[in-house]
Write a structure and sequence with these properties.
The structure is a homodimer. Chain A has about 400 residues and is an alpha/beta fold. The first copy, chain A, contains twelve helices and 14 strands. A seven-stranded parallel β-sheet of chain A has the order 3-2-1-4-5-8-12, sandwiched between helices. In chain A, helix 1 packs across helix 9, helix 6 packs parallel to helix 7 and helix 8 runs parallel beside helix 10.
Chain lengths: ~400, ~400
């Protein structure tokens, strides 16, 4: 199949592009390198050294003999995007090409507007390009479990049958996202569902949980094929950050009570899930949602797990409970259904000591690249103008969130 | 109270600004005249002659002695918007300042993107300006009943109690909007709900039905105070269009079967509802939704009503059923609750022969201004590139929608 991987230079986009290329697909990698720009803006950096997109693609060719077609540009630019579709109409589009970071979207008005316009316009453009130049193409869109928030009922996969005043309907699951980034993906979901309805497009919306891990079969082939590993207070996801904090001898920062429960998955399962979606496309006009998670944990459970693994390696890991810079429930019901990908054949890699050991070993290997002053959270949801970048952080602590 | 009326030069914004000014409020009218620009773009025009915003405000002063503060600018420009808040922090913001037209948003990709970025960015800016400069201010946001679509259960006011697998939660009512314009207002609703939660703002989201009528106590004071009356295939709402078609001797265009049922209200009730919301603000941090409708009708019921009134005036009114250029159910369940505004004291003007007579009389008065070639629908939901403007319409009919 001809597959466009939008955002193919990112944490998941790059390994996904290789994963699909390794399986014989004709892969084009699309990116405008905004993620690298935003690192420069925030004073953050991947713990693992990452090659340029060009060097990555050349190394992939050298190591495997396979070609990935690198196209540099912005999907919010329709002239660029539509030309890609006209040049070689894709069979599938895997859409990682969004500003995906919750804290980044909460820095200031500028960052909220950038996140929502970038994501909404990019996705609208993809929908129009499909309708105009590749109407049979399958859009595999990366959304987030954060679209649902934390309702006090079971979270279904995209739709819920509601019984009300003696009548019944199957309706979109109500959304309660908790950042401007998550909100942008709710906007996308509504736009995509509509485009499928009016233009007969087909799409799978993958509401992905929090991804952990850094190694796939393909990234392990050569150091130039490594993907990024974010641990900082803006871009880092929780389990990665905890591993770094353990190695650096910092306390694990569990915001507030740590009862925040979320769905998680291994980076290798992201690869699998996207491929399963591509192999089993929806029918024309169908918009479907898969909850792309394999397990759920509370934040305090993850911290305790890292402490246990650390102790076995002779590390003394402390847990701190700073005031929560986010606005979220710290203890709540959480039960997210995730059977649709399993039914398609997903074989999950469940979180285990083995995985944690391998992440901890990666962190140790690159410990010299650590920027300790970027680890703590420095975006407070309650403030409309957060200091931007690690330069503004006072030594000795994060800016105290207002209660 | 100091009240900003965003979009105060529009069909509803202008009479609303006068209505609030007449009741002693300190009203500022904000507009960038984009509605007038879009008329120029589409080759459409108000049936009633309307004065410039400047002439309107001067006439209002001359007739009533009252001052409305006209501020010309774009709320998507934060430098402009925030200065308004700094100059005189408002107690309430009435937000009509969006691209509100469903067919306009469906003309092409350009129009969809314009509609969503204009509306989402404008509203994000209003939320940030409130949080930064007027945190106690009450946002009264005009949304639309179209956010709900046509679910097979009763439509509640913004939130629904869902019983699921033995658990209960009160959750946002699921949204199924049917155009990129309606979608933009769903995006706004999610953004506003979130801003109330994280920043403690207060907002009333008025999910308004289809408004009919052209005359309020204030517009009737002087011809220079008239508001616009849209009847064309892009901007015209259904009942206004039917009255024009009856007078012009054209068949009333009932799309498809005409079973499409929607909530409606008189323009004078919009004035009342907004004032009731302002007089009864939500508490800090509260996001509430009112369904701003007074009655519901199917499209065929409205056509029959116009035919009856026409017959009494000696007109022979025909009803035509062209193929539906929209993608919507043509017969469906519809029952929208609307008790919250009634509970606050709304005294509705129900649709009657008297109102219809007055609209028909207005149309007769300005019949010489009618542009007959703009009446038929010329935007087809199923096409991503509609011919723009009445110039592209072939004589003798509308572009045939593809089935």
């Amino acid at each position: 199949m001809r597959i466009l991987v939008l955002g193919g230079d990112g944490y998941l986009g790059w390994p996904q592009a290789m994963y699909l290329s390794a399986r014989g697909h004709d892969v084009a990698l699309i990116d405008n390198f905004s993620r690298r720009l935003w690192d420069a803006e925030c004073g953050t950096d991947s713990l693992t050294p990452i090659a340029s997109a060009d060097a990555r693609v050349r190394a992939w060719k050298e190591v495997t003999g396979r070609t990935v077609d690198l196209r540099v540009g912005d999907i919010a630019d329709y002239e660029f995007l539509s030309q890609l579709f006209k040049d070689a109409p894709p069979d599938a589009v895997v859409h990682f090409g969004e500003q995906r970071c919750a804290p980044y979207s909460m820095i200031s008005r500028h960052h909220a507007v950038l996140t929502q316009t970038n994501n909404v316009v990019g996705t609208l453009n993809v929908l129009y390009a499909m309708a105009e130049f590749a109407p049979g193409c399958h859009l595999v869109k990366l959304g987030t479990m954060g679209e649902y928030g934390t309702p006090n009922i079971d979270i279904e996969e995209g739709f819920i049958e509601i019984h009300h005043n003696g009548r019944i309907d199957l309706l979109p699951f109500p959304k309660q996202p908790g950042t401007f980034s998550h909100l942008s993906k709710v906007h996308d979901s509504h736009n995509i569902m509509f485009a499928c309805r009016v233009w007969g497009l087909r799409s799978t919306d993958l509401n992905q949980g929090v991804v952990y891990g850094v190694t796939t079969d393909e990234t392990a082939l050569d150091p130039r094929l490594a993907t990024r590993f974010d641990y900082d207070g803006i871009w880092g996801t929780v389990l990665n950050r905890f591993c770094v904090q353990a190695i650096a001898g910092h306390p694990l920062t569990v915001y507030g009570k740590g009862g925040q429960t979320r769905g998680f998955l291994d980076i290798r399962d992201t690869m699998q899930c996207v491929e399963l979606a591509i192999q089993n496309p929806p029918k024309a006009g169908e918009y479907r949602v898969f909850n792309q998670v394999t397990e759920q944990f509370s934040v305090i459970e993850l911290a305790q797990l890292v402490r246990t693994v650390g102790a076995r390696k002779g590390m003394h890991v402390e847990i701190a409970n700073p005031a929560n810079p986010r606005v979220e429930l710290e203890s709540h019901y959480y039960n997210a259904k995730h059977t649709k990908l399993t039914a398609l054949g997903l074989k999950p890699h469940l979180l285990s000591d083995v995985l944690l050991n391998s992440v901890v070993d990666t962190v140790k290997q690159y410990q010299h690249r650590l920027r300790p002053d970027t680890i703590l959270p420095f975006v407070n949801w309650r403030t409309t103008r957060n200091p931007l970048g690690y330069h503004d952080i006072k030594p000795g602590g994060s800016p105290a969130p207002k209660a």
